[in-house]
Amino acid sequence: MADVDTLDLLSKLTAESFSLGELIGLTAALADSPALADQAYKIWIQFNAQHPQLSVAHFNRAVLQAALGDIAGAAASLEAAIAVNADFLPAYVNLGGVQERAGLTELAIATWEAGANRSIVPNGANVGYAFTCLKQIARLLSETHQMARAEVALQRAADLDPHAMDVIGQLVAVRMSQCKWPAVLPTERVARDVMLKGVNPLSVAALTDDSLLQLAAANHFVEREAKATLEQIRADRRDAPIDLAGRRPRIGYISSDLRDHAVGYLMAELFEVHDKEKVEVFAYYCGKESSDGLNTRIRAAVEHFIDIRPMSDDEAAQRIADDGIDILVDVNGHTRDARTGVFARRPAPILVNWLGYPGTMGSDYHHYIIGDPWIIPPEMERYYSEAVRRIPCYQPNDRRRKVSDTCPTRQEAGLPEDGFVFCCFNGTQKITPHVFDRWIEILKRTPGSVLWLLDSNPETNAGLRDSAEARGVDRTRLVFAPKMPNVDHLARYPLADLFLDTTPYGAHTTASDALWMAVPVLTWSGRSFASRVCGSLVRSAGLPELVVDSASAYVEKAVEIGSDPEKAKALRATLQANRDSCVLFDMDLLADKLEALYGEMIAEHQSGQRPRPNLTNLSTYFNIGTTLDREGREMQAEPDLDALYRAELARLHLLKAQPADGRIWEGFDQ
Question: I want to staple 412 with a disulfide (CB 3.0 to 4.6 A). Which of 374, 408, 429, 550 is the partner?
Answer without folding.
Answer: 408
